Amino acid sequence: MNLEAQLTPSIHKILQELYGDIQIDQVQLQKTRKEFEGDITLVVFPFLKQSKKGPEQTGAEIGEKLLAELNIITGHNTVKGFLNLTISDQYWLSSLNTINDNEAFGLDRSAQHLLMVEYSSPNTNKPLHLGHLRNIFLGHAVSRILEVNANEVVKTQIINDRGIHICKSMLAWQKFGNGETPASSGLKGDKLVGKYYVEFDKAMREESKALKDAWSTGNYNGADQAAIDEFNGLMSKLSQSEDEKTQKAIESKLKEFLNNQTQVMHDAKEMLRKWEANDEEVYGLWKTMNGWVYEGFDETYRAMGVEFDHLYYESDTFITGKDLVEKGLNQRVFYRKDDGSVWVDLTNEGLDHKLLLRSDGTAVYMTQDIGTAYQRFLDYPKLNGIVYTVGNEQDYHFKVLFLILAKLGFEWAKNCYHLSYGMVDLPSGKMKSREGTVVDADDLIEEVVNKAKEMTQERGHIEGMSEVEKEELYHMIGLGGLKYYLLKVDPKKRMMFDPAESVDLNGNTGPFIQYAHARISSLLNKADNIQSVDESTELHESEKSLIKLLNDYPEVIKEAGNSYSPALIANYAYELVKGYNSFYQSVSIFKEENTQKQNMRLVLSRNVGKVIKSSMYLLGIEVPNRM
Fold first, then answer.
1. 416-421 and 385-391: which strand pairing?
2. Which domain holds residue 62?
3. Which of 234-243, 396-405, 476-485, 510-519 has the lowest mean pLDDT?
4. To 5 degrees, how large is the angle CA 278–CA 284–CA 288?
5. pLDDT of 260-269, one tens digit each?
6. Could you write out the DSSP letters of every residue in 372-408?
7. Which of 93, 112, 181, 426 falls 20 to 30 Å from 274 in CA-CA distance?
């Protein structure tokens, strides 16, 4: 029980004795602000009507009564309408003993609910990159945080292994690959396939430019009249537009139009149609190239230290989605246009019309997501909800998805949640996979590990370690720095990434926190026979502050679970380490002659180390015993 919950009933009883009819919800307690003396603050304003006195007088009156009747309170002061209460050292030392006795302090693994968290969910046409890393680390950390908030969690991903983007890589490999394989090229399978995704975009842009140049001079090369009319209409609008924003919108529409007129795009669409018709040759190539990608993904996931409990594949769930769309048509939830495409009308919900099936009968992303959600609740009948970890550029998509699921009559749609997060930028600008301007995940992990290696070797504290132990340490520090850097920022915020800063030993970084754990481990290795804390020991202010920080850990975990924010855990760990460093500099441990104080400081150190390790585990970060 936290301090607020412990004090509230007692304070309520005393307030009733003083002023009569006081409701318990009028008792408002909060942490005392740092600039004032005290540990917890009672808001006095709700009692002024009954006290018939001013805020200062009322606060003093309540404070004296609390001081006289509650042993836990040792002092008070009133600032305007706020009564600051000082809590006894004995209470804080008793709290430290409670924390010390509980190895799972702050963690509730009672698994009262079943939740599913989706993260990663890559396309099988390119390797994982920096943008994926924030998604993966965020989803994995949220899974662990939810697990210690009384939930059983199924960690999952939907592998986007079908669709026009997959066919683009396949078609480019057919046209330009000359039979190249991961074995013959020495490339990881995901990188090889990603190479041909870029090749497709290059070929399409060249062909699109040639079309524009030809059509602009009246050389239409046998194009149909509808395409010619649309092209001329867009070019006319572009020439007449004077507004820069409008011009950019028309240019974007013209680019998309021309891309769709290219032969390579036509061939990719035909390949998708054949795939959905289960064409033997196309299907065989798809299985081969996806197999290359899966091997590459698995290698990267192992390096990241993340895992999944259940994998879903779009190639399976899109069929279920198409069946549900047909069901919705029969129920008149959806409608079919004259060209055969199927849509849903969401204008009554303040949105627009959304495509569910193309005119040729092929599925879109929404079709697959409908089928996947339905399949998950079939697979896990006791599922209480799904958390989708997907970037904020898909906010609209998930709003539409959840509305469609509700329209189909699925009660569980209200338990679906989109964990929306901001994009990761580089100093050089936004990344684009199709143009090959991304930061590859494998390359980035290698870079931060190498930077961690340089930093660790410069410090020179690794003598006596084997080469294997050193490499494990470099990887632990580098990957820990990378994860922490991407998780310490509120998920909703867009962020800029700096690899060098992520492994800095100073400031709000993973290695700064890892080093504190290593220092505490070294300290405890020198200690003998640590006992429970004598609760009559006098506390230094830095010790009291540190115990108060430890006491906050369970509430931080709950808040992080409620808000799906690992950043709360990360920044709590940073504040805890700063508090420990202040304590370490303020008092002596082994030079302390008072054995009770020395023992208490060792117990305090041990529990700070325990909570550092626990909080870093929730972020998916390992901590070293030596660094």
1. parallel
2. 3-87
3. 234-243
4. 135
5. 999 999 999 9
6. HHHHHHHH-TT--EEEEEEEGGGHHHHHHHHHHHHHT
7. 181
